[in-house]
Structure formats: structure tokens, C-alpha cells
Amino acid sequence: MTEQIPLGYTLFAVLAGPRPRVAPDAAAIAELSAAVDAVTAGGVTVRGLYDVTGMRAEADLMIWLHTAPGGVDDPAALQKALRTLRRTAVLQSHTAVWTAMGVHREAEFNKRHVPGYLRGEHARGWLCLYPFVRSYEWYLLPEDERAAMLMEHGRKGARFTEVVANTVSTFGLSDYEWLLPLESDDPIHLVDMMRDLRATDARRHVREEVPFYTGRRLELDELAEVLS
């Protein structure tokens, strides 16, 4: 009997801080830390908070949540967890500029693909997140034609062993079809992989793949400097 892979709902929220910027004090950071502990105890994993300042003009912080392996696969739990975090003094003045939810379903490029966060991969130092929408005709192409293009795409991507792929489906959960959260300890690996994968036939069947949100994973004690 094969092991059942959890659905692994996941939620991303990109936030913009108040202007002028105000550094949170130690008490506020402690409150946020307690909120992280509370949502973790409730079955939600805070995979990371990411510094996107300077990478995007309209954003400061990105939050990545997912349901915990072995826990309840409930998207409402992620929504509640995000609300809990955003009620803290550190985040209550932040506004959401982009959010999206995804869930693990069979990936078209590799039917055996399981997102890294569901395989037990630890969070890496950098995250590059972007949505993806195929062309209108893509899903009407002959299956063998699509398979050949996806095999080429997969072979190129597999060379980048320093990058952890976390592709999830978001059909009906957002304006997009797929979310591609890619992790690496060195952002240059993300840059090189994204550039290399442009030279594939599958690129002819892309309708949308923006915005990009890329940032460094933060420790909570770094937030005072990052948000000030």
C-alpha cells in the first residue's frame, strides 16, 4: 500500500509596512513570537518570514504558512493563522499587497513531484515565489506533445540540485493555475535556474508568470532592523 501524501495547503502573504516606518520594540517581537508558537500548536507551520524590502517597491515582508504534515489539511486553519499573526503589534499596521493559497496536486511536469515542504526539506535561506498560468491552448495539446516539452523542462530543472521546488496547484483558489515557491541558500542559484529554464519549448505556452516576490528568510530578532 503506497503512503498517502497530504494535501499540504499553503498560504503566502506579502505585506507592506506603514510609512513612515516604525521599528517594533522587544515587547512587540515577543508578542509575535508567542503568536507563531500559538499557530504552530494549532497545526500550522510558519515556514518563514522573508525580507522583500528593495526587491519590490510596494512590499516589505512575505509570510509563508502551510499545514503541518500529520495535521489537519484545512485551508481555514491557514486563514486563521494569518489573522492571528496580523493582529500582533508588529504586523497590525501592515497592509496586504498580494496573497495566494495553493495545495499539493499532481504536477504536470512530474507526476511524482512532491513539494519540498511536504518531503521534510528544511527551509532554505532564500525564497523566490511567482504564480504561473499556461496558454489557453496548452491543455488542449496532445498529451504526448505536452509530455515531451515537460520532460525537457524537467531535465533542465533537475540539474539545479541546490534549489528546492515546492510547486503547488492554485486552480480555483486564486487568479492563477500554479504557484512556484523555489528555495535556495544562495539566490544566485535561483537566478541561474530561472534564466536556464527560459530556453525550453514549454516557454511558448506561458500566459502569465508575474509578479515575482523574492526575499531572505528572517529570524524574528531581525525584524526590528528590517522594518525600521
Helix and strand topology:
Layout: E1 10-16, H1 26-41, E2 44-51, E3 61-67, H2 75-86, E4 95-102, H3 116-119, E5 126-134, H4 143-158, E6 164-165, E7 168-169, E8 178-184, H5 187-196, E9 206-208, E10 213-217, H6 223-226
Antiparallel strand pairs: 1-3, 1-4, 2-3, 2-10, 5-8, 5-9, 5-10, 6-8, 7-8
Instruction: Give the fraction of residues assigned to helices.
Output: 25-40%
Terminal CA distance reads: 53 Å
Number of domains in the coordinates? 1
Beta-strand fraction estimate: 25-35%
Q: Give the helix/strand class.
A: alpha+beta
Runs with pLDDT <50, length 5+? none
The fourth-level CATH homologous superfamily is Apc35880, domain 1
- Mean pLDDT, to the nearest integer, reads 94
Looking at CATH, which topology would you report?
Alpha-Beta Plaits
CATH architectural group: 2-Layer Sandwich
Q: Count of DSSP E strands?
A: 10
Oligomer state of the chains in this structure: single chain
Number of helices: 6
Largest sheet: 10 strands, antiparallel
CATH top-level class:
Alpha Beta
Spell out the helices and strands N to C: EHEEHEHEHEEEHEEH
Net shape: globular
Kindly provide the radius of gyration, computed on alpha-carbon positions and rounded to a whole number of angstroms.
Answer: 18 Å
